[in-house]
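Why run this: before we spend reagent on co-expression, it is cheaper to look at a predicted model of the complex and decide which construct boundaries make sense. The entries below are exactly what would go into the expression plan.
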Amino acid sequence: MRQMLINGKFTNGNAKEEIEVQNPATEEIIDSVPRGTVEDIEAAVQAAQSAFDPWRKLGSNERASLLHEVANKVHEHREKIVHLLTLEEGKPLSENEEEVEWVINTFHYYAELGRHHRGSVLASGESSQFNFIIKEPYGVVGCIVPWNYPLLLLAWKVAPALAAGNTIVIKPSEMTPLTALYLAEHCFDGLPAGVINVVTGYGLETGEPLVKHPDVPVIAFTGSLATGQRIASLAAPMMKKLHLELGGKDATVIAEDADPEIAAKAVAYAALINAGQVCTSTERVYLPKNRAAKFTEAIVEQVKSLRLGSGLESTTDMGPMIGDTFRTKFEKQIADARASGAKILTGGGRPKHLEKGFFHEPTVLTGVDHTMVIMREETFGPAVPIMEYTSFDEAIQLTNDCQYGLGAVLISNDTKKIKQFFDDVKAGTIWINDPLTDNYAGPFGGMKYSGGARELGEEGLEEFRETKHVHWDFNMEDKGYWFPYGR
Ligand code: NAD
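The model came back. Tokens follow.
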């Protein structure tokens, strides 16, 4: 069994039981972690609280060096981390290499951004006055992370929160805690004790106590809408700062001018990377009616060519889903769509050649509409549901007909359509011809029910700083406008 990191020490804490971690490609148990408790959260918050004052007062040069050191250690250990990510999460090695690259560069990026500025000087009302804004850390940040990008989503919170001067308690997903603990042991060891703590456990037993803790003023959470709503309801009475990155139901619109082969490759990638288990996965595809047959044929051909298997094989394009519950929920959406008249063009079942593991064939459907669950709720699996549109206005209306607003993709070189798309689609990220490519300086996050938080870029740092205005008058004198009035 691995151990948790609390106050610079590895420990089982108060855990009486362990949580087994399963490889989703083989169903084998690969390791276990402590089933953390409310007492463990208490100890971790206390440690982070004690570490806060010295950490926030550290000079920005030293803090930057320590964050660069974390990045360098992740770089040194990257092969092991990539392998462990593939074992616990399932996606192919090449996707995990990219995830680890993101972790390294996010720490380097915020190491530098953190020493850039921490406020601004204002125009003062009088020449005897000096007005300025200081950006301050909040204190202890609770970081609650999901399983689909266990380290990237951890880094997008931890690096800016630390750069801003906060200290951290991380609660990784119970399904993918091993890589967070690996980082704790091999990459966070140069940080002062208590600056980062990692408590493993279930959402109800460790996540909720963290959310409810009075000494944790910020909750940075990535996960499902339902959990985000629960966290918001718990945190609201305590006036906590909430940083919520929730679900998505992103659309890809293919415009009439698109090349069918390129569009098909873009759609397959956007919908099926990490077996469709990405918050910004394309979960709805809209095609122009007059070219729909050609585009559909190209998409089916592209999806059929994908190779399913263990993420450890270099030839694998798509790995398993994370677990049986998720696969069953996915299969139910497909079955519901079928029962309502949708047609499966490829896939639709579990692959016969893979006996073990939570695999599902990538599945292309047509004949879907917005009354079906598969077009309304998050699918989080390898589905490509296709619908036709008759005008570009209708494509935009369909794209916006959704409770989520995380991202949206357009495949086109038609400048008028491109402008209409980024002007009128309500989503936090618009990708044109290059789906799902993020940028360290580009704020990532959602609109509507996807939550309003932003990660990456300057906005990603600002999320972890609060604003203090200082009004300073150089003259200590009785102001004419003080009491008594009528002087
Ligand atoms: P989840 O909401 O089930 O769990 C996320 C984390 O919250 C886990 O660590 C879990 O243990 C914890 N948790 C569960 N219940 C809790 C509670 N009551 N209080 C506090 N913590 C609790 O989500 P998941 O299945 O791990 O992840 C998939 C979801 O994450 C999808 O909906 C996906 O869209 C979303 N996601 C969003 C983004 C984004 O940036 N917007 C990125 C990746 C994933």
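The mean pLDDT is 98. Residues 144-149, 153, 171, 173-174, 202-204, 207-208, 211, 222-224, 227, 230-231, 245-248, 279, 378, 380, 406, 446, 450 surround nicotinamide-adenine-dinucleotide (CB under 6 Å). Bring this page to Monday's planning discussion.
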